[in-house]
Amino acid sequence: ASFGFRDVPEAEKEKLVRGVFSSVAKNYDLMNDLMSGGVHRLWKDVFVGWLNPQPGWKCLDVAGGTGDIAFRIAGAVRKRGGEPDVTVCDINPDMLAEGQVRAEKKGETALTWVEGNAEHLPFADNSFDSYTIAFGIRNVTHIENALAEARRVLKPGGRFLCLEFSQVVVPGLDVLYDKFSFHLLPTIGEWVAKDRESYQYLVESIRRFPNQARFARMIEEAGLSQVKVRNLSGGISAMHSAWKI
Ligand code: SAM
């Protein structure tokens, strides 16, 4: 049955999201390529470029899934001659397991994989130089709890950086994008991954997520400072940067 995920009660959401990502874990790269036409790879490069991680940083990547951001951070730190220290935290053991397989294949040993919820991070206060979250925060039940946790685990002077689908700001592109995402995407998901509902969930979660300005305000309300926004591909995605002062 294709029911609307937006009608799911809050208490059910976490379980539901878990199911979605368990079901897509094996096809995760393919799913991202379908959803973004492959552009997510470039967005992630730009995202880690903006983070500009430095040798010596303790980095945390929340909702890190199969490690796309963490691998890039590790690469960037090595390029600068440093030894990377990156923790990937995700609520879903299947995504983490897939990430660990990828790490083994790449011979990447600098990552630590931790199961945990963005709303209750299993880390001490003031323990990371950077907190990243890419295409993760819209899946969290209470965004404000995740933001409060981001602030808590960051060291004073630490950097918050979020990459998320956002609101298209280019007239014309918005209509096209709407048509693509609402009608085409679940059908592609059904054909390719035999999983219409997971893709439908993803589309709906993108529509419900606050736009650039509203999300920026939420970050400020969580006590993070100097919020800056950069759109990617006309606002299909956006990056929000902030600091813990
Ligand atoms: N950051 C990775 C990337 O960009 O490729 C993965 C993004 S994937 C679309 C979303 C991830 O968020 C999934 O791995 C899912 O398990 C995770 N997730 C969902 N809710 C979460 C929560 N409350 N806490 C931590 N991770 C969560």
TrEMBL record:
Its EC number is 2.1.1.163, 2.1.1.201. One of its GO terms (biological process) is methylation. S-adenosyl-L-methionine binds at residues 66, 90, 117-118. It is an enzyme of class 2 (transferase). GO terms for molecular function: 2-methoxy-6-polyprenyl-1,4-benzoquinol methyltransferase activity; demethylmenaquinone methyltransferase activity. Keywords: Menaquinone biosynthesis, Methyltransferase, S-adenosyl-L-methionine, Transferase, Ubiquinone biosynthesis. It catalyses: a 2-demethylmenaquinol + S-adenosyl-L-methionine = a menaquinol + S-adenosyl-L-homocysteine + H(+); a 2-methoxy-6-(all-trans-polyprenyl)benzene-1,4-diol + S-adenosyl-L-methionine = a 5-methoxy-2-methyl-3-(all-trans-polyprenyl)benzene-1,4-diol + S-adenosyl-L-homocysteine + H(+). Pfam families: Ubie_methyltran. Belongs to the class I-like SAM-binding methyltransferase superfamily. MenG/UbiE family. Methyltransferase required for the conversion of demethylmenaquinol (DMKH2) to menaquinol (MKH2) and the conversion of 2-polyprenyl-6-methoxy-1,4-benzoquinol (DDMQH2) to 2-polyprenyl-3-methyl-6-methoxy-1,4-benzoquinol (DMQH2). This is Ubiquinone/menaquinone biosynthesis C-methyltransferase UbiE.
